[in-house]
Structures are given as structure tokens and as C-alpha cells.
Write a structure and sequence with these properties.
Layout: H1 2-33, H2 51-65, E1 71-76, E2 82-88, E3 96-101, H3 108-112, H4 116-122, E4 126-131, H5 149-164, E5 169-175, H6 177-188, E6 194-200, H7 206-218, H8 223-237, H9 247-252, E7 258-263, H10 271-280, E8 286-291, H11 299-302, H12 304-318
Parallel strand pairs: 3-4, 3-5, 5-6, 6-7, 7-8
Antiparallel strand pairs: 1-2, 2-4
Helix pairs in contact: 1-8, 5-6
Length: 329
């Protein structure tokens, strides 16, 4: 009799464990992959992760949106999702376009308005800041960590090739999830107009990044929770959290010139991920810049002169060689 009681107790505990695990996976899925309601108005400084950086981004965003020369552009993705972005045409005719791809739970103008002076004002090129699906002004409810965002970037490239002409030259510059999205897009791109990839603090794949993030939050990786959440990801989005966001596999097939940047003290998307991406990259023209003292998404703010000098060098080499691209140096 006692053994049956013990078995029933164990079965009950197992059932409770499974229920708890299922509930935790639902919570984890919503936390990681479901779009959040975006607050309106001016953000509170106490909510900023990096006050100096975020204050500069906020003021840069307001200055950008106040411009009279920006264009609100949109297109419809293959699955019907409405995609939005801000386009800033060059002051003088230019066939060079920089597409800046923002990171997780950010927006184009919020993360990249700080680069307007570099790319548009001083370098005199066309500048485009898209909002990825489920971010900013774009439609969509679920974030796919590059799996569906990369084809969206390719669609934007086609849009601007048609608009600027077949002779245009494009550089992709991504940060964090945007960097990994740019890597995936560059690996899939068939457009010869794409000349340069710039990937700042990108992850190797979303599955590994989720495991690392869990370790950071809990102090350990509870693998069954990641497995179930990844299964829910595939069920809901129709793509794999590992295979369809595999940037290591993508860079192994990459022939495009590729500049990797990473904060040397990045403890969110580990610096080691940037090292691995650079090492695995098959491009004959590749480089890695580690910015000392920089954490996640802080390389430009900590090492701006070095960062911009590297951008300048690679843009001149591969996007606009011999042109009046750097007349204001």
C-alpha cells in the first residue's frame, strides 16, 4: 500500500512539475518573443539602461523627427506584414545607401539617429532607418530574432535598388539583433548592389543567446525550459530558433566584405560571440574591432573616434572608392 501512495505522490509531483514548466515556458515565450506595448511620450530617465547613451538617443530621435527632409516609407512583406522606415535622402545626388538595422526592442530612429551626422551630414550618403517587424511603427506581433527580419531587409534592398537605380551601392550596418539580422540577410542576398556588412555586437544564434541570457538571469541554464520555449517558437512562427538564426553558418558562406565590432566587456551578447563570428567568416576581406571598456551596444559611445575611423576606412575601401565620399575629413 505504501508503495502505491509513494507512486501516486511522485506522479502528482511530476504533474505539478510539468504544469510549472509549461507555465514558465509560456511566460518565457511572451517575455522574449511577443511585442510589448510601447509607451508614448518622453521616457523616464530612471528606466534607462545607460542614461548617457539613452539620453543622447532620445534627443537625437527628436532632432531627426523634426527634420523636413525625411520621408516616411513603407512596404508590405511577403507574409503581408506592413513594414515602416524613415528615409533621409542625400543632400546631393548619391548612389550610396546605408541601411541601419536596429536591435531587440528598439527602433530604427531611436538606435541609429546618433549616426546621422556621420553618414548623412559629413559622408553625404542616403540613409535609411527601418523599423523591424514587431518594433516601432512596423506591424507584426512576434519577434523572430532575424529569421523573418532578414528577408524583410532584403525586400527593403529591392525597394531602394528600384528607387536609386541598378548602379547603387548598399552597406548594411546592424547592432545587436540588428547585426545578426544583417548577417543573415547578407548571407542570403543575391543583389550585387550589396557591398559591405557592418555587424556590431551580434550573436551567433538566437538559441545560444537565449541560453546565455537565462544564465545571466538565473545563474544557470534550465535546458528543458529553453527546449520547450524553442518548440513553441517553431510552432508559433514556423521557423527554428537555432537553425534559422544561425549566424555562424551564415558567415561561413559569406563572400561579402565584413567588418565586425564588439565591446570588449560585453557581458550580454558575449564578446566571445563576436570573436567566433569573425573567425568563422569566409570573406577574404574581414576585420574585427574590439572596443576596450565597452559593454553591450556601447562601442560607438565609448570609442567613437576609433569606431568612426574604422567605418570610414571600410566604407571608402568597399562602398565608395575614389569618390567624394570623405570630402569633410
Amino acid at each position: 500500500m505504501a508503495i502505491y501512495i509513494m507512486l501516486y505522490a511522485l506522479a502528482g509531483l511530476a504533474g505539478l512539475f510539468c504544469l510549472a514548466l509549461a507555465g514558465a515556458s509560456v511566460y518565457a515565450f511572451r517575455l522574449a518573443f511577443v511585442r510589448r506595448k510601447e509607451p508614448g511620450g518622453e521616457p523616464r530617465e530612471e528606466d534607462w539602461e545607460q542614461p548617457a547613451r539613452d539620453r543622447e538617443r532620445w534627443s537625437g530621435k527628436q532632432a531627426f523627427l523634426a527634420r523636413e527632409d525625411i520621408e516616411d516609407v513603407s512596404l508590405r512583406a511577403a507574409d503581408g506584414t506592413t513594414l515602416k522606415g524613415w528615409y533621409l535622402p542625400a543632400k546631393e545626388p548619391s548612389d550610396v545607401l546605408v541601411i541601419s538595422v536596429h536591435g531587440y526592442r528598439c527602433e530604427g530612429v531611436g538606435e541609429f539617429s546618433c549616426f546621422v551626422d556621420f553618414y548623412h551630414e559629413d559622408r553625404k550618403v542616403n540613409y535609411f532607418l527601418p523599423d523591424l517587424r514587431a518594433h516601432g511603427r512596423s506591424g507584426g506581433r512576434l519577434i523572430s530574432f532575424g529569421a523573418k527580419e532578414a528577408p524583410d531587409i532584403l525586400a527593403w534592398m529591392d525597394y531602394f535598388i528600384e528607387r536609386l537605380g541598378q548602379s547603387c551601392k548598399i552597406a548594411l550596418h546592424g547592432i545587436s539583433m540588428g547585426a545578426s539580422t544583417a548577417v543573415l540577410a547578407a548571407a542570403r542576398a543575391t543583389q550585387p548592389q550589396l557591398k559591405l556588412l557592418i555587424a556590431d555586437c551580434g550573436y551567433t544564434d538566437a538559441y545560444e543567446q537565449c541560453v546565455d541570457s537565462m544564465k545571466g538571469e538565473l545563474g544557470f541554464a534550465f535546458t528543458p525550459l529553453v527546449w520547450i520555449t524553442a518548440a513553441a517558437f517553431r510552432l508559433r512562427l514556423g521557423v527554428s530558433l537555432r537553425k534559422d538564426t544561425d549566424c555562424l553558418a551564415a558567415v561561413k558562406a559569406l563572400k561579402l566584405p565584413a567588418l565586425f565590432l564588439h565591446g570588449a566587456q560585453d557581458d550580454f551578447v558575449k564578446t566571445e560571440m563576436g570573436l567566433r563570428l569573425h573567425e568563422a567568416c569566409a570573406s577574404p576581406s574581414k576585420a574585427l574591432l574590439l572596443v576596450e571598456g565597452a559593454g553591450h551596444d556601447m562601442s560607438w559611445y565609448v570609442g567613437r573616434p576609433l569606431y568612426e575611423a574604422k567605418l570610414r576606412e571600410w566604407m571608402e575601401r568597399f562602398v565608395a572608392p575614389g569618390e567624394a565620399f570623405f570630402t569633410n575629413l
